[in-house]
């Protein structure tokens, strides 16, 4: 095949890929009750003449028949239905139960009595208390990793990603009995994010970006120098403030907007989240001089440095559109200049690598979803088609045969080019692939082209499953990189709370070093934590002192949870197509459906 023919295949207009029949959204955007006229039923019983004795015997016979036959049948059917709802979970559901517990272990603030981590207690109760504009300080939220710092940028991204997974797969969370749990995890995070700026105002000029600080090589008490349980911290925990935060502000807006859809059944809370999202989004996009939130900050740049903010502009606008239904957000998200700036900031193939720092592939998939299910037409179609095309190229880049990225011999994709901590990038890519495969399946789109090769959803599901299976133990080391899963998993996790005994002794800043430097397993098992993972040769060292191998993070574990719920068979093989559009109203000039796609 010539290069021109290959190019034409790559430029195939995906708008031709259509469903074989209209789904619920296309018929009415959302499932709405139809106005049907109730029909009254009239039954002419006529007139029956019989003896009272015969009538009594007839009624008695019917009652006996019901007791003997009817009740057992009803009981049997009820028990049968009950058994169907508790079918045995698959491996992904088992892992999902564990992965959610990691967030319980990372909670900061005053914990509820039913917190299911016995070695954790109240902590960080003095965070932000000295700030005059905060009544209750910055108490709550999540510690990011093995240290005791609360980094708001990856925390917000984690909440956005978890909310996205609930919006798409709420039925699966319910099927495995984790729906209330995941909502509690999200609410713990969004309640805290509401404290990081004046969320009751309509305009703000700053946002708090971090609590706690560390400097690499520090020789004075801070979160790098000290090794203490969060419950025992007694060193200064400074708060970082950003007056320009187009990246952080948009991510916080995304987290609140996505959560407002998750909590749509709680009208007051959902409205509170949405109003706050509008405030912080306005701050993020309308500030005068735009600079990344981390620029020039010695306490942020070494850890969660933001390399740009155009991707957050697109990501934030996409979530604001879904949460509000306001087409001005969609117009901004589909502005060609916005896309050009985002593409210039992130070079290929890294532009397809979804992470806490790069939201571009996630935003492109989220906007592609609109094209698949709503097909808005002019003036959005041109850019939505471009996002759809780019999403398909991103999917091609994940597949082994196209050599966009290196892979380990054991089968792990190297999305961060062989650098440490590859697993958090792998799970994010796996989630996008699994989710896009479900979009294809639920819209009857048979597949897409990678050059001259036609691919389908099974290719994407296969990729996603291979990465998760690698993490859960199908790797050359035969080790599960998620703590608690399987028989062989890391025991020296780089984590202060897990490595210090819960023995009612408050170890000081330096007294905790002996627990940091011990060569024995942690006294506390941090169930569900996905560690940094192996190197580019599939090698791994289970040593507490090497955080690149053994430290877990919020963002990494959020991606793991998202892909696990997408892969489990519990709850059925589908997505919730309509909930995300609950605030979206049809355009007045809604276009007719396109003809059925044919190969």
Describe this structure in words.
The protein has 599 residues and is mainly α. Helix content is 45%, strand content 3%. The protein is built from 20 helices and five strands. The protein has helices at residues 3-10, 24-28, 52-85, 91-105, 152-175, 179-193, 246-262, 267-286, 301-304, 310-324, 327-333, 336-345, 360-373, 381-398, 423-442, 457-471, 496-499, 513-517, 547-550, 554-567; strands at 150-151, 207-211, 239-242, 448-450, 453-455. It has a three-stranded antiparallel β-sheet with strand order 1-2-3. Strand 4 and strand 5 (453-455) form a beta hairpin. The longest helix is centred in the N-terminal third of the chain and has 34 residues, at 52-85. The chain is globular and about 65 Å long. The two termini are 18 Å apart. The model is unreliable at 1-52, 71-87 and 589-599 (pLDDT under 50).
Q: End-to-end span in angstroms?
A: 18 Å
- Provide the succession of SSEs: HHHHEHHEEHHHHHHHHHEEHHHHH
Q: Measured on Cα atoms, how large is the radius of gyration? A: 27 Å
User: What kind of sheet is the major sheet?
Assistant: 3 strands, antiparallel
Tell me the overall shape. globular
Strand order of the largest sheet: 1-2-3
The structural class is: mainly alpha
Low-confidence stretches: 1-52, 71-87, 589-599
Mean pLDDT: 86
Concise summary:
With 599 residues, the protein is an all-alpha fold. Helices cover 45% and strands 3% of the residues.
Question: Which descriptors would you attach to this protein?
Answer:
two-stranded antiparallel ribbon; 5 strands; disordered C terminus; 3-stranded antiparallel sheet; globular; 599 residues; single chain; mainly alpha
């Amino acid at each position: 095949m010539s290069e021109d023919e290959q190019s034409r295949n790559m430029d195939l207009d995906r708008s031709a890929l259509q469903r074989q029949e209209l789904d619920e959204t296309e018929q009415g955007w959302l499932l709405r009750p139809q106005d049907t006229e109730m029909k009254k039923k009239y039954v002419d019983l006529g007139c029956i003449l019989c003896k009272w004795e015969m009538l009594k015997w007839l009624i008695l016979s019917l009652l006996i028949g019901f007791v003997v036959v009817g009740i057992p049948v009803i009981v049997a059917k009820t028990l049968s239905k009950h058994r169907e709802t508790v079918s045995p979970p698959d491996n992904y559901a088992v892992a999902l139960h564990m992965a959610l517990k990691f967030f319980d272990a990372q909670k900061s603030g005053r914990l509820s009595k039913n917190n299911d981590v016995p070695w954790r207690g109240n902590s960080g109760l003095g965070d932000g208390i000295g700030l005059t504009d905060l009544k209750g300080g910055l108490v709550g939220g999540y510690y990011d990793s093995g240290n005791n710092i609360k980094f708001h940028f990856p925390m917000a991204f984690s909440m956005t990603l978890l909310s996205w997974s609930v919006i798409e797969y709420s039925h699966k969370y319910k099927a495995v009995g984790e729906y209330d749990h995941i909502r509690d995890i999200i609410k713990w995070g969004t309640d805290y994010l509401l404290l990081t700026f004046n969320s009751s105002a309509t305009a703000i000029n700053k946002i708090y970006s971090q609590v706690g600080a560390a400097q690499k090589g520090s020789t004075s008490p801070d979160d790098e120098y000290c090794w203490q349980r969060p419950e025992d911290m007694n060193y200064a925990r400074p708060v970082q403030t950003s007056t320009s935060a187009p990246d952080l502000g948009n991510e916080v807006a995304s987290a609140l907007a996505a959560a407002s859809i998750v909590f749509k059944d709680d009208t007051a809370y959902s409205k509170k989240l949405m109003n706050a999202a509008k405030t912080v989004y306005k701050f993020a996009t309308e500030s005068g001089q735009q600079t990344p939130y981390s620029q020039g900050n010695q306490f942020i740049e070494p850890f969660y440095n933001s390399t740009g903010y155009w991707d957050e502009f697109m990501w934030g606008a996409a979530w604001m559109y879904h949460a509000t239904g306001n087409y001005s957000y969609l117009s901004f998200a589909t502005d060609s200049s916005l896309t050009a700036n985002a593409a210039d900031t992130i070079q290929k193939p890294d532009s397809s690598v979804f992470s806490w720092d790069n939201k571009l592939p996630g935003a492109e998939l989220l906007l592609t979803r609109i094209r698949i299910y709503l097909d808005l037409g002019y003036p959005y179609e041109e850019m939505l088609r471009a996002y759809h095309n780019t999403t398909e190229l991103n999917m091609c880049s994940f597949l082994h045969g196209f050599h966009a990225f290196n892979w380990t011999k054991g089968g792990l994709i190297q999305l961060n080019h062989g650098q440490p901590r590859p697993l958090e990038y792998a799970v994010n890519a796996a989630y996008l692939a699994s989710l896009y495969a479900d979009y294809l399946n639920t819209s009857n789109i048979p597949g897409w082209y990678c050059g001259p090769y036609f691919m389908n959803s099974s290719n994407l599901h296969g990729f996603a499953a291979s990465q998760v299976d690698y993490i859960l133990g199908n790797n050359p080391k035969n080790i599960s990189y998620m703590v608690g899963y399987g028989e062989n998993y890391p025991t020296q996790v780089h984590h202060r709370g897990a490595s210090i005994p819960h023995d009612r002794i408050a170890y000081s800043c330096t007294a905790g070093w002996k627990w940091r430097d011990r060569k024995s397993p942690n006294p506390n098992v941090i169930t569900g934590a996905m560690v940094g993972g192996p190197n580019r040769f599939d090698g791994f060292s289970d040593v507490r002192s090497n955080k690149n191998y053994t430290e877990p993070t919020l963002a990494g574990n959020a991606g793991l949870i998202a892909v696990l719920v997408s892969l489990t068979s519990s709850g059925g093989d589908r997505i919730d197509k309509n909930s995300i559009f609950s605030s979206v109203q049809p355009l007045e000039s809604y276009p007719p459906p396109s003809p059925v796609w044919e190969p």
